[in-house]
Amino acid sequence: MRSIRIPTVGLTLVLGLVLVLGAAPRLASAQAAPPAGGGQGGYDSLGADWGAQQDEARAGVRQGRYVPLARVIEEIRRRTPGQQLDAGLEQAQGRPVYRVRWAAANGRRIDYIVDARTGAILSAEGR
Q1: CATH number, residue 85
Q2: How many domains does the chain have?
Q3: pLDDT per residue over 27-67, tens digit each?
Q4: What is the dihedral of CA 13, 18, 21, 22, to 10 degrees?
Q5: How many angstroms separate the CA atoms of 21 and 63, rounded?
């Protein structure tokens, strides 16, 4: 049986393009307050509110409040070779952060918490 290799587009590229270009623009004023639930009092990047947090991230980048996620991903890639598993905007201790789940080249999974306003890596916890 022959295996067929299907080319894929990197998730990083797709997320970066969506954030930068605003693929499906909605009203910029859409829900400024984070929804209830989610990690540490705000958004949960894997929860049911993912659409709202993507809208918030796009609006924040357009308005210059947040650094683009693509820039954050490149910094993590320079620091730790590997690939992104997922990423999203959350609230942690009253501030917007990107949570980036990363698969390091050595097989470790690392959760990066990055300040969405400055791009500074606040923490990196691995397994």
Answers
A1: 3.10.450.40
A2: 1
A3: 332 333 333 334 444 445 556 667 777 888 899 999 999 99
A4: -170
A5: 13
